[in-house]
Amino acid sequence: MTHDDARIVASADVDDAASLGTGTSVWHLAQVRENAVLGRSCVIGRGAYVGPGVTLGDNCKVQNYALVYEPAVLGHGVFIGPAVVLTNDTYPRAVSVDGTLKSAADWEPVGVTIGDGAAIGARSVCVAPLRIGQWALVAAGSVVTKDVPDHALVAGVPAARIGWVGRAGRRLEESEPGLWICPETSERYRETPDGLALEES
Question: Which of 3, 28, 76, 151 is catalytic?
């Protein structure tokens, strides 16, 4: 695979079978496992872990000590905050019923899928399998156990929707039923069955 035009500091552990896009940086003590595919201009922070076969789009940030377990799929421009965990085991156990240590053949990994532009706040846990929609925002310290709609703002344990956010990350204001406005950009969003959709100007 390719690591051309990527910045990898000496203390990082990047497998030769991983693929890193142009301009991607992998910082101190981070680990990127085999067959992971990172897009262009990604940043993998200190001590972060990217599992085998994980896919990141362009311009993603995985902050310090975040754990992104396979088979996670991140879209473009996804933000993973410090110490976030994306799990991959529905029924976690170290041993089988007979007491023997489980191996890779004894369970089937499930993943977290994150849409373009979404952000996961510090120390949140996303319990697979689930999907987090485009431009959604998970508040710091949340535990996400079910799918999150596009543009949803979720918080808590377990996480629940408490509002909507626009592409700028700001909480939206309702101007009329089903129509939401970004206070920063003045972008308009309309409620849909899948969450919110940006109205074309």
Answer: 76
